[in-house]
Amino acid sequence: MRAADGHALSYSQVVRALLVVNPQATTTTPAGRDVLAHALASDVKLEVVQTSYRGHAADAAHEAAEGGFDLVIAHGGDGTVNEVVNGILRGGPRPERPMLGVVPGGSANVFAGALGIPRDPVEATHVLLQSIEHGTRRRIGLGQVFADVIEDGRWFTFNAGMGLDADVVAGVEQKRAKGRNASPALYLSVALKAYAQNVRKPQHFTVEVPGEAFDDVGMVFVSNTDPWTYFGDKAIQLNPSTSFDGGLGLSALSTLRVPTVGRYIAQVLATGNPKGAKLVRRDDVGYVRVKCEEPANLQVDGDFLGTTTAVEFRAVPDALTVAV
Questions:
Q1: How do residues 180-189 score in pLDDT, each as one tens digit?
Q2: Looking at residue 106, what is its pLDDT?
Q3: Range of the domain at 304
Q4: Is residue 324 one of the residues assigned to a domain?
Q5: Residue 9 forms part of a structural domain
Q6: Which of 34, 113, 221, 241 has the highest count of CB atoms within 10 angstroms of its CB?
Q7: What is the pLDDT of residues 225-258, one digit of tens each?
């Protein structure tokens, strides 16, 4: 653990921690929040913020970082984690930034799963308390995306993309705004509709990575770690060699025709190591630049950011410290 001046904390020092709770997350409950807060309060000097608007988690995490807190804990889904990370790192990574703690409370909890943090909140709380007690932590790399729809860039922890996957994220957000709960069935139904629309009106992207460029790509997935996401309890692996310790992974299909997509999905589900003549895969790249003539949807960590025609995804090593 590190104090605000960047020096290591001894176990006798009081750890200042902020617990950021998203009450709208899929599996977050008031009772669970209270149990978590009670457990943490026995080990740290704890403050609790319950989010009430989009961006609240980021604002609270930023205030904690500026206020010299040692630890910011995200209790919610991947969107809450993403906001907290962006709040901690607002203004750029620095040694005195607080450490991130995660207690899952969403439906997928991809970031926690990729770090080996239990998806069960009670078990995750135990891991977090052990980390606080013993001072265990991990430094990880993140992705950062720059586009005209984002001011000063946006950090992402596990995945980002343009085209089909962002269409799905946008569709699910619309459904959830109308009261639908996030579930594998909802994602599947929205994905099938989005795919049918893409078949009728294909999107065309130009993709550039260091030393290479690819024209007329149909969809673009960018990974910061593995897995790319979860479908229920099934890990979906697109770039299994990608990790928090390296650069970004690229997975892109040159066509979205049914035979190609069907073969790709079958490989992903069966082996987690897709290959093929229509598939562009690269691991450990420093950046991925994407352009298109017609505005396309953009998502990071399952959060829809808007539409744009040009995006740059960058790998940023050793950007964040996580309690594990």
A1: 887 888 888 9
A2: 86
A3: 143-318
A4: no
A5: no
A6: 221
A7: 999 998 888 899 999 999 999 999 999 999 999 9
Domain presence at residue 7 = no
Within this chain, do residues 40 and 149 fall inside the same structural domain, yes or no?
A: no
Together in a domain, 260 and 226: yes
Does 150 share its domain with 100? no
pLDDT at 11 over 80: no
CATH code, domain with 100: 3.40.50.10330
Give the per-residue SS3 of the chain. CECCCCCECCCCCCCEEEEEECCCCCCCCHHHHHHHHHHHHCCCEEEEEECCCCCHHHHHHHHHHHCCCCEEEEEECHHHHHHHHHHHCCCCCCCCCCEEEEEECCCCCHHHHHHCCCCCHHHHHHHHHHHHHHCCCEEEEEEEEEECCCCCCEEECCEEEECHHHHHHHHHHHHHHCCCCCCHHHHHHHHHHHHHHHHHCCCCEEEEECCEEEEEECEEEEECCCCCEEECCEEECCCCCCCCCCCEEEEEECCCCHHHHHHHHHHHHHCCCCCCCCEEEEEEECEEEEEEEEEEEEEECCEEEEEEEEEEEEEEEEEEEECC
Into how many domains does the chain fold? Answer: 2
pLDDT, tens digit (0-9, with 9 covering 90-100), for 60-82: 999 999 999 999 999 999 999 99
Q: What is the pLDDT of residue 6?
A: 43
Q: Domain for residue 105, yes or no?
A: yes
